[in-house]
TrEMBL record:
Gene3D superfamilies: 3.30.450.180, lambda repressor-like DNA-binding domains. One of its GO terms (molecular function) is DNA binding. It comes from the Bacteria. This is Helix-turn-helix protein.
Amino acid sequence: MTTRTVDTTKELAAFLRTRRERLDPEDFDLPSRQQARRTPGLRREEVAELAGVSIDYIVRLEQARGLRPSANVVEALARALRLAPDERAYLFDLARQRPRNADEPATAAAPPLARLVADLSPLPAMLMNHRYDILAWNGEMARLLLDFDTLPPSQRNAMWLCLVHPDIREFYVDRERVVREGVAHLRAAWAAHPEDRALTDLITEITDRNEEFARLWAERDVKVNGRGHKVLRHPDAGVIAVDFEVLMPLQDPDQRLMICRAADDESRSALNRLYSR
């Protein structure tokens, strides 16, 4: 599988199809059908009825026949398919109905944000762009995760490290969830930045060399995490549970500031021991 470019027409078709197939017909107040269902989820005609469009329109959308739905139709489809907020935003991105930033993606930390990352010590903090490239970090984050200075810039990517780097692959206790959420975030970023060649190259590289990523990417889950909880298996400090918050600066909306805090007293003590070394 390769993802060299974002073919939004085909991706829109596939996304609509997978969301339709995941729905349970029993959750909808639809007229009963006598014939048995041969495929999972709702039928195309049922989605058309719920969205207020023709069956032919749904067929053409799912067959990637060049339609570009209006914002009103996208909204109707999102309601009919009961999309979560992140999935709804993803659908709008694929349909090219959301305003987008014309600036080039950030490849370096904005100086004020780099200073802020340092000033946040002793809280572990780092700055990333939408594709998980790590642009800046403080000493606490380097002690908690990895000394990023030892890596070439091309490998300073949180998704790549989680999947490929030998020291990080088994770092997370709930690794399946962490990777799944990371892939879902990356898919949302991919739709929102279709011209970002570095992002599509990154996805292609990881897909080609990592079965786990390829499997999760094909599921087309979409989710953007602004906060969460992770449990780390640190080689020196033992198990550390952290809560994290991701903030997007108004002046630099393509950059994301991640701040971590100990989730409990034991983890706080473990972090203090780690920082004192």
